[in-house]
């Protein structure tokens, strides 16, 4: 593929590394992007890479489909591994902790939604809250560890999870708007 792109003068992002799966999975995704220097663009200080993509070279795509693994840098992570302070959710009868769902609602995900949808302000806060929760739910459903449990939940428990996500999303959006106003 590289030869084809080179021969046709098609710009492309070069691979960072090639090696065993273990060496690739251990590649540190927290680095400044190399794209500006590869394309002779002006360098921007602290221009972080979003992460890395690992693609297997010797995998039967007809059998397994298009396989790739994305590892995002900490600055772009849309699922945080944290333990938020929670109220009493003992009525949420399920075999999974509510904080696992709340990990999907954070500033990075909100900024990702904003980059797709436009500016966030007090006038469109509700729209962005809905979009933020929809984006989180999409990832929750696709997540192998939590998705299966979410999809098998009762309607009542799903409604409780939605309530949690909306409440956490509202906090994230309000803090984002407040921080934005302070930084004007």
From TrEMBL:
<feature type="domain" description="RNA ligase 2 C-terminal">
    <location>
        <begin position="102"/>
        <end position="164"/>
    </location>
</feature>
<dbReference type="Pfam" id="PF18043">
    <property type="entry name" value="T4_Rnl2_C"/>
</dbReference>
<keyword id="KW-0436">Ligase</keyword>
<dbReference type="InterPro" id="IPR040609">
    <property type="entry name" value="Rnl2_C"/>
</dbReference>
<protein>
    <submittedName>
        <fullName>2'-5' RNA ligase</fullName>
    </submittedName>
</protein>
<dbReference type="InterPro" id="IPR041948">
    <property type="entry name" value="Rnl1/2_C_sf"/>
</dbReference>
<dbReference type="GO" id="GO:0016874">
    <property type="term" value="F:ligase activity"/>
</dbReference>
């Amino acid at each position: 593929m590289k030869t084809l792109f080179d021969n046709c003068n098609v710009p492309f992002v070069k691979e960072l590394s090639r090696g065993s799966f273990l060496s690739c999975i251990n590649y540190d995704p927290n680095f400044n992007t190399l794209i500006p220097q590869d394309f002779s663009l002006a360098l921007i200080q602290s221009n972080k890479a979003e992460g890395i993509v690992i693609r297997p070279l010797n995998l039967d795509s007809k059998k397994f489909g298009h396989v790739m693994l994305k590892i995002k840098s900490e600055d772009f992570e849309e699922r945080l591994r944290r333990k938020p302070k929670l109220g009493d959710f003992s009525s949420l009868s399920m075999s999974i902790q509510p904080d696992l769902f709340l990990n999907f609602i954070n500033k990075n995900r909100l900024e990702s939604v904003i980059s797709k949808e436009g500016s966030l302000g007090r006038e469109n806060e509700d729209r962005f809250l809905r979009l933020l929760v929809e984006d989180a739910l999409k990832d929750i459903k696709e997540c192998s560890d939590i998705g299966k449990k979410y999809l098998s939940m009762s309607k009542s428990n799903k409604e409780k999870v939605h309530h949690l996500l909306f409440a956490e999303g509202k906090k994230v959006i309000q803090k984002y708007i407040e921080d934005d106003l302070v930084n004007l």
